[in-house]
Write a structure and sequence with these properties.
By secondary structure, this protein is an alpha/beta fold. The protein is built from 15 helices and 11 strands. It is 48% helix and 14% strand. The strands form 3 sheets. The protein has a 7-stranded mixed sheet, with helices on both faces. A two-stranded antiparallel ribbon has the order 3-4. A two-stranded parallel ribbon has the order 8-9. The two termini are 39 Å apart.
């Protein structure tokens, strides 16, 4: 945060768009600075969009986005936002990683949006820093990059590195930065302009179940136990004992807050994590199945198709369309 506060105006922002980035996250991280300029009645912030070769970049929604320049043509920036979403591994090329290291050496504040944090981690510029990413990839981020202190927060500030979970979390992050630089009155006005109830703090939970179960510590604890035991799922009785309540009470909590059963929620949690791995990694399907608590690939395929309407192999084909 301090690194951002000392930047002189205009603060030069760059948005590096990597293939299949999130259009929502780009708008969320850019619009607050546009509105800040309008309300301040001066160009306090300037920005440009970038791609590896200067050509258009297609977002995950299929919209092609023209950019201002290529990374080779980029001046030294005050802040560089790295936008990635699906398949971040495909964007971790030598030119991209070298560019990120170079901007870091020149003193740019590096900002990872959604899985952009994974790209920063691969470049080695998050070693020793606290960071976050989208909840679907947090576990793999922690395993792959042990030198990064992974957090589940919606956004994280750590010296000259910033990471946000993606989506509207990027807007919470941007408005928090603007509030620190220009005061809370401007930030509150901005939230009202965007028709938001307020600005979430950094440590707000990323997931619906975590936030809506906040009134029940036992439900939150049960979900946390589930998330720590995806590879070898616990029986519901053992889960209830870990939390210190009866099976009947556990079932009541899931019905009240989430309108489902513990077993159904647990199974869907494992399947959604598996789906994220299918979309974002090249792990074999059998390995993904076993790593998410399914006895074999056939059992996994049946459960996956029942929830998503197609087999896991089709998920791999979808992402290449």
């Amino acid at each position: 945060m301090q690194a951002f506060l000392v930047r002189k105006e205009p603060v030069r922002l760059g948005h590096l768009l990597l293939p299949r980035f999130s259009q929502l996250a780009l708008s969320s991280s850019l619009e607050p600075f546009r509105l800040a300029n309008t309300q301040l009645d001066r160009a306090a912030y300037e920005w440009m969009t970038l791609s590896v070769d200067g050509g258009p970049v297609e977002a995950s929604n299929g919209i092609s986005n023209n950019v201002t320049a290529s990374i080779a043509e980029t001046p030294v920036l005050d802040m560089l936002f790295v936008h990635a979403s699906y398949e971040p591994d495909r964007s971790m090329t030598a030119p991209v990683l070298s560019y990120l290291r170079r901007q870091a050496r020149f003193g740019a504040i590096l900002v990872g949006i959604e899985t952009g944090g994974l790209v920063l981690a691969r470049a080695g510029v998050l070693d020793g820093y606290q960071a976050t990413s989208h909840w679907e990839v947090l576990d793999s981020m922690a395993e792959t990059f042990p030198n990064v202190l992974v957090k589940k927060d919606v956004f994280v500030f750590d010296r000259d590195r910033i990471t946000a979970a993606g989506g509207v979390a990027a807007m919470d992050m941007a408005m928090t930065l603007i509030a620190a630089r220009h005061g809370p009155t401007l930030a509150t006005f901005m939230a009202e302009e965007f028709v938001l109830p307020g600005i979430r703090p950094a440590d707000a939970p990323q997931r619906f179940a975590e936030s809506h179960g906040a009134g029940s510590p036992n439900l939150t604890a049960a979900i946390a136990v589930m998330e720590r035991n995806l590879e070898a799922p616990l029986p519901i009785g053992a889960l209830a004992r870990r939390v210190g309540i009866s099976v009947r009470e556990l079932e009541r909590l899931f019905r009240r807050w989430l309108e489902t059963t513990p077993a159904a929620y647990y199974r869907e949690l494992r399947l959604r994590r598996a789906r994220a791995l299918l979309q974002q990694t090249e792990q074999p399907i059998t390995e993904i199945a076993l790593g998410n608590g399914f006895a074999d690939a056939a059992h996994f395929s049946r459960a996956f198709k029942a929830l998503f309407g197609h087999p896991p192999s089709h998920e791999r084909r979808i992402r290449t369309l």
